[in-house]
Amino acid sequence: MDKTELDILVVDDQLGVRSLLSTAFNEMGYSIATATNGDEGVKKAFELHPRLIIMDIKMPAKDGITALYEIKEQMPQIMVVMMTAYGEVETIEQIKKGGAEGYVLKPFDIEALINYVDKLLHSGGVMLA
């Protein structure tokens, strides 16, 4: 896969989430890769140069916040949407400070997430307020 082909990298330790998002975005015509934890997500981001990453926060090997900061430090042009089951103010502040384009709360509405990601990919990114 060349560096401009990958649309979305999904990083989540839950197989069900990776499968759901892969299927949904593949059906829309997007190219997808997946990673099972933050460490693998960072490696794949640097290797594959996705346009957008959808990443969970709570994962083994490296959490999503740490991975977000590492990715954005080296490749700030990659858009990142974080997923979290915990909407604490501190977590949201870390996401914003790390440069993520947005976040969704788990369990998420798949249609709303698809629409949000589709808009980001077509608009070039919209920062959080």
Which regions are unreliable across 5 or more consecutive residues at pLDDT < 50? none
Helix content: 40-55%
Structural class: alpha/beta
Anisotropy-based shape: globular
Instruction: Provide the residue-averaged pLDDT.
Output: 91
CATH class: Alpha Beta
Major sheet characteristics: 5 strands, parallel
Count of domains:
1
For the secondary structure, the number of strands is 5
Query: What is the rounded Rg?
Result: 13 Å
Q: What is the helix tally?
A: 5
CATH architecture annotation name: 3-Layer(aba) Sandwich
- Element pattern in H and E: EHEHEHEHEH
Bin the strand percentage: 15-25%
Identify the strand order in the major beta sheet.
2-1-3-4-5
List the helices and strands and how they pair.
Elements: E1 8-11, H1 15-27, E2 32-35, H2 38-48, E3 52-56, H3 64-74, E4 79-84, H4 89-97, E5 102-105, H5 110-123
Parallel strand pairs: 1-2, 1-3, 3-4, 4-5
